[in-house]
Amino acid sequence: MLLAHVFYLLFPIITTSLARELFVYTVATDDNDAFQRFKRSADIYGYNVKVLGSGETWLGGDVANFPGGGQKVRLLKEELEHLAEDKENLVLFLDSYDVVFMDTEDVFLQIYDALGHRVIFSAEKFCWPQAYLATKYPTVKEGESRFLNSGSFVGPVADIYELVTHSPIANEDDDQLYYTNIFLDSELREKYDIALDTRSELFQNLNGALEDVKIGYNDDTGYLVNTKTGSQPVIAHGNGPIKVAFVLFYDSKVTVFNKKVKFNSLTNYLAKTWTPAKGCIHCSEDNIFLDELYSEAYPVVQISAFISSPTPFLENFFKNLADLDYPKHRIYLTLYCNIEEHYSSLLEYNVTKGYEYKSAIIIPETEFKTDIAAKNYAW
């Protein structure tokens, strides 16, 4: 009898959980490498992401460095119009170019339920874009993140729709300021039960939090651990300037090292990409088997050689380049040299071998004084 009573009490919860859907949205106007990285992580962990704004012109400004991003609010508002009355299902909205998933939808929902709030925004260390609003935020415990970040949030569909339709916003307006003003309104915060993920249980924003995280491994994947709060977040977000460069503190069972890397490099260790036990997992995906192709169907690749310091045995380098076992008519060759003593070797290679390539160009050192400038031009 007691067992039946327990089952009766649990059954509505179980059926509600099974019936609930998580609608995942992002905005991506360009299908670039960063978006493909995001999509790969979503596919691995079973998220069905709907992309908004695909093929549209981005009108939201340079959001990595300046206020902007209002276009994201507009696109989400348009998408949710037909779901405006849905109080059962959830919306998860994310940026894409600087985001990767690190765990499954089931784990995400379990943590969301445990947090006990209807609408949850990610939190970061900086009050952006209006720093003077910092004093209006509720205080948090040491090691936690205090300020709203609009790059990821979750909540019931009806609530999210009311938030994105709360007031007008132009494409070039700042989406983070838009949501910040809602959160800082105590009546609205209470009405929609809005909370910030200050402990990074769901969302880990990395800007300003580099020393808070380390990367750990199991047999299948790498994942982030927030050492300040003890959380293992589900989603990593390389927000703001952190996507350019940051220090990653890596801790495995034996080895500890500090390394300055880009966000692109960090993601090489997340989302079942590489582990100490299995090596490069990603390397076995989407492979092209050249022995099954005619040379005319080989992928076209670019090889760029930058000579920016005195280099011994340079003739051996050019010999090895010439001897590469790959059809030269499928290679774009880019050469650069700002070392006077080596320039003749570069010119000689271009004259004697350049015609064999699909194209061969020399980036003028008079116009691009440094190898960094030349690399930016080449890429």
From TrEMBL:
<protein>
    <submittedName>
        <fullName>Procollagen-lysine 5-dioxygenase</fullName>
    </submittedName>
</protein>
<dbReference type="GO" id="GO:0005783">
    <property type="term" value="C:endoplasmic reticulum"/>
</dbReference>
<dbReference type="Pfam" id="PF25342">
    <property type="entry name" value="GT_PLOD"/>
</dbReference>
<dbReference type="GO" id="GO:0008475">
    <property type="term" value="F:procollagen-lysine 5-dioxygenase activity"/>
</dbReference>
<dbReference type="InterPro" id="IPR057589">
    <property type="entry name" value="GT_PLOD"/>
</dbReference>
<feature type="signal peptide">
    <location>
        <begin position="1"/>
        <end position="19"/>
    </location>
</feature>
<dbReference type="InterPro" id="IPR050757">
    <property type="entry name" value="Collagen_mod_GT25"/>
</dbReference>
<keyword id="KW-0732">Signal</keyword>
<feature type="domain" description="PLOD1-3-like GT">
    <location>
        <begin position="20"/>
        <end position="246"/>
    </location>
</feature>
